[in-house]
């Protein structure tokens, strides 16, 4: 009797406790691995000992320099990578669900373009007179660009359903183009070759300079994304057959779109301001997870957050070890992995129908 | 009267799509909505369902204006089956039908065994038992339509609005759905193209160019004149020798002379 035992079987992945139980150990394992692996591998027992010393107050004898690298450098980096991966993947989940567009990704709303303009304005032009950091500039630029896109979508918009979604996407393209042009203009006008290379590196996504102080913004942003998505999992499900269908299922469409797209934009802006625009995570992870856990958001949200976190930790490790003596921008790694994976997903989807 | 509207209007770029529609749906009746393509049936149904805000006029659900009700409260009373509901998501049939329980669920009222039973009954009602694991994009047009109807049934509505629900169905399932809706102890408004099927309704409302041109019992409304003026066809009524009910036989598209 499939009709009877079916709900029980599927409910494992959809049960909140299931994820509450499996997510922490996987995440912890990934963090330890991300800290242990690198150009000079550190034995994982030492990593665990340092973590215990710091977190649980134990007093294992460990090398001071090892401890410093592990705690201040690699672990901070792994935590930022994990938060960033989770946040970007969830932003992708939200935008794909609400805009009904499989190609929607977190940078669709002009956020990465705005962030680069802001970063360049601070780094090259010296906007803010040295008081605001490049990250703060990037964040302000990202929110300006999103504000512009949202305003344009609002003015040009109207209606519900596919039309409204289409307008947001078009406004995002217009906003991205505008801010990319501004960035190019600023670089052409003022930057020297050295600065241009630095900006380029930053735009591709980069975790090199990351320290514990950066976790103050990215960790809460990732948590905000997770909580907002879990609280609205049913509303996200209700958009499966479009906005009109969501409305007929009792969802207040405007309010849901406004608040969740706002959260996605905020989370993405925080991530981009710390790490630059790391591509493909927000596009590929949600699609991959849909193939594994299905389309319902009770499972898709925790699965995507976890997979995004693990994926970026892994990509960061790869970016440090692939070229000996050199660090590749993490965005290059995610794109090199993400693009083929996306192609495989597309083909697999077709084969399954 | 449970659902009504007054002077309802909706327009696009100064072109009136629906204008001046006033209608009272009686409790428990099955009201047929007929009219040629583009006459505004879908637009009217969306406004009646509270999915689209009318440009003018008001819709009332159980005497309160629709605009003052929360979307969720509307969805607990009223369900809509859209004409073209589609998705690219690889959602299973069962998951799609479970969406119908959305308005009743919250943090304080999680999914329960009772909901599983409601979903099972909805699947049974549209003859989709055993389809629970099938993925949406592997279904035929008629099967998809039945999934949408099952989703609406899972809402256990007092009022069911259906927009051309029999469109893609084979004749057996067309009749099954119509008799199912007829047999439900609820109020329904159903847009139909097959005028012979419209004869099954308690009352019929005829839309033409966004306005109601006739409203009443099928035998009074559907006349040879009406077929010619509104639908542009020549047709005659004959009597079914099996049970003595009237049947429309169409001869040709009416040509203006
Ligand atoms: N959003 C829209 N923009 C422009 N025209 C529309 C829109 N919605 C409906 N229409 C037009 O309104 C008319 C009525 O549409 P509809 O209500 O779908 O008719 P029906 O369901 O009776 O076939 C059609 O001519 C259609 O082209
Ligand atoms: Mg229609």
Detailed description of the structure:
The complex is a heterodimer of chains A (353) and B (257). Chain A is mainly α and 353 residues long. Chain A is 79% helix and 0% strand. Chain A has helices at residues 2-14, 16-36, 44-56, 64-99, 111-125, 134-156, 161-190, 193-203, 212-231, 233-238, 243-248, 253-275, 281-293, 297-321, 330-352. Chain B is an alpha/beta fold and 257 residues long. In chain B, a hairpin with a 2-residue loop joins strand 9 and strand 10. Chain B starts with a strand and ends with a strand. The chains are: A mainly alpha (353), B alpha/beta (257). Chains A and B meet through helix 1, helix 10 and helix 11 of A and helix 2, helix 3 and helix 4 of B. Bound molecules: adenosine-5'-diphosphate (ADP) and magnesium ion (MG). The site of adenosine-5'-diphosphate has 10 residues of chain B, from helix 1.
SSE inventory with pairings:
The complex is a heterodimer of chains A (353) and B (257).
Chain A (H helix, E strand, L loop, with lengths): L1 H13 L1 H21 L7 H13 L7 H36 L11 H15 L8 H23 L4 H30 L2 H11 L8 H20 L1 H6 L4 H6 L4 H23 L5 H13 L3 H25 L8 H23 L1
Helix pairs in contact in A: 2-3, 2-4, 2-14, 3-4, 4-9, 4-12, 4-13, 4-14, 5-6, 5-7, 5-8, 5-12, 6-7, 6-12, 9-12, 13-14, 13-15, 14-15
Chain B lengths: L2 E10 L2 E11 L4 E5 L6 H8 L7 E6 L2 E2 L5 H7 E4 L11 H6 L14 H13 L15 H14 L4 E5 L7 H13 L3 E5 L3 H4 L4 E6 L2 E6 L1 H4 L2 H8 L1 E7 L6 E8 L4
Parallel strand pairs in B: 3-8, 3-9, 6-7, 7-8
Antiparallel strand pairs in B: 1-2, 1-4, 4-5, 9-10, 11-12
Helix pairs in contact in B: 4-5
The structure holds adenosine-5'-diphosphate and magnesium ion.
The site of magnesium ion has 4 residues of chain B, from helix 1.
């Amino acid at each position: 009797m499939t009709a009877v035992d079916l709900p029980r079987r599927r409910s494992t992945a959809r049960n909140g406790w299931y994820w509450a139980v499996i997510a922490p150990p996987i995440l912890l394992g990934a963090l330890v691995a991300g800290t242990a692996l690198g150009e000079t591998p550190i034995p994982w027992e030492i990593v665990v000992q340092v973590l215990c010393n710091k977190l649980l107050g134990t007093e294992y004898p460990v090398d001071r320099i090892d401890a410093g690298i592990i705690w201040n450098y690699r672990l901070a980096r792994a935590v930022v990578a994990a938060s960033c991966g989770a946040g970007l993947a969830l932003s992708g989940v939200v935008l794909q669900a609400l805009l009904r567009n499989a190609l929607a990704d977190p940078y669709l709303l002009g956020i990465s373009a705005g962030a680069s303009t802001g970063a360049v304005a601070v780094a090259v032009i010296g906007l803010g007179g040295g008081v605001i950091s490049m990250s703060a500039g990037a964040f302000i630029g990202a929110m300006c660009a999103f504000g512009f896109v949202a305003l344009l979508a609002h003015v040009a918009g109207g209606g519900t359903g596919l039309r409204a979604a289409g307008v947001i996407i078009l406004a995002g393209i217009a906003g991205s183009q505008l801010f990319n042009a501004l960035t190019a203009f600023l670089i052409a006008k003022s930057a020297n070759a050295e600065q241009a290379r630095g900006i380029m590196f930053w735009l591709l996504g980069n975790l090199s300079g990351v320290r514990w102080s950066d976790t103050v913004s990215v960790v809460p942003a990732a948590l905000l994304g997770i909580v907002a998505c879990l609280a609205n999992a049913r509303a996200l499900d209700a958009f499966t057959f479009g906005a009109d269908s969501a409305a007929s299922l009792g969802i207040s469409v405007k309010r849901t779109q406004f608040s969740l797209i706002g959260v996605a934009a905020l989370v993405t802006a925080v991530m981009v301001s710390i790490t630059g625009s790391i591509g493909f995570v927000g596009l590929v992870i949600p699609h991959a997870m849909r193939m594994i856990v299905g389309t319902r958001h009770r499972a898709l949200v925790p699965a995507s957050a976890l997979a995004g976190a693990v994926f970026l930790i892994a990509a960061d490790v790869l970016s440090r070890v692939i070229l000996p003596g050199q660090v590749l921008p993490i965005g290059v790694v995610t794109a090199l992995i993400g693009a083929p994976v996306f192609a495989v997903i597309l083909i697999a989807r077709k084969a399954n129908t | 009267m449970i659902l009504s509207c007054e002077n309802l209007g909706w327009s696009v770029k100064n072109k009136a799509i629906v204008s001046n529609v006033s209608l009272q749906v009686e409790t428990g009746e099955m009201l047929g909505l007929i009219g040629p393509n583009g006459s505004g049936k879908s637009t009217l149904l969306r406004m009646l369902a509270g999915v689209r805000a009318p440009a003018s006029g008001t819709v009332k659900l159980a005497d309160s204006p629709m605009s003052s009700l929360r979307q969720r409260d509307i969805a607990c009373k009223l369900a809509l089956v859209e004409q073209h509901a589609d998705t690219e998501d690889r959602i299973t049939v069962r998951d799609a039908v479970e969406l119908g329980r959305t308005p009743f669920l919250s943090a304080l009222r999680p999914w329960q065994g009772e909901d599983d039973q409601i979903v099972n009954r909805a699947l049974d009602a549209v003859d989709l038992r055993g389809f629970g694991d099938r993925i949406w994009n592997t279904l035929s047009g008629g099967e998809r339509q039945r999934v949408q109807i099952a989703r609406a049934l899972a809402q256990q509505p007092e009022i069911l609005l259906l927009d051309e629900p029999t469109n893609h169905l084979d004749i057996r399932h067309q009749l099954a759905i119509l008799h199912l809706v007829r047999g439900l102890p609820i109020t329904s408004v159903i847009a139909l193209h097959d005028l012979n099927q419209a004869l099954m309704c308690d009352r019929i409302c005829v839309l033409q160019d966004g306005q109601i041109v006739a409203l009443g019992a099928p035998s009074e409304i559907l006349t040879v004149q009406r077929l010619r003026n509104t639908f542009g066809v020549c047709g005659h009524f004959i009597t079914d020798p099996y049970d003595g009910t009237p049947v429309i036989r169409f001869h040709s598209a009416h040509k203006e002379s």
